[in-house]
Amino acid sequence: MLNLIEGIALLASVVVITASNPIIAVIALIAVFISVAMILVGYGLTFMAFTYLILYVGAVAILLVFVVMMMTVKEMEQQQDHGSGTAIARRVQKPEMRKEADEREALTGRTAGRP
Length: 115
Description:
- By secondary structure, the protein is an all-alpha fold.
- The chain has five helices and no strands.
- The protein folds into two domains: 2-78, NADH-ubiquinone/plastoquinone oxidoreductase chain 6, subunit NuoJ (Four Helix Bundle (Hemerythrin (Met), subunit A), Up-down Bundle), CATH 1.20.120; 80-115.
- It has helices spanning 2-18, 22-42, 46-79, 86-92, 95-108.
- Helix 1 packs antiparallel against helix 2 and helix 2 packs antiparallel against helix 3 (46-79).
- The longest helix is centred in the middle third of the chain and has 34 residues, at 46-79.
- The radius of gyration is 24 Å and the shape is elongated.
């Protein structure tokens, strides 16, 4: 049983290192913390396991989740185009339409959707 939990801890730690999405990395980190606590319970160190859970999962991992959420909000605010909708329109446009819009903006000196 401990070998299975150790394998889960190892797999989750690899996901923490290789995940490109920070939310996935934090969830995998929580899985590592929980599996390590289960290993400690398996060795008979129950107090250490619960202390580990309270300290790391209860404090550090939740703090990381909040930091990642705040980073995501700041990135979204930076990507907004102040309500004109051009940022969304650019993502939806086909490449040839985007090229025409860029040429039109260069000629007129204005961006689409703004006076």
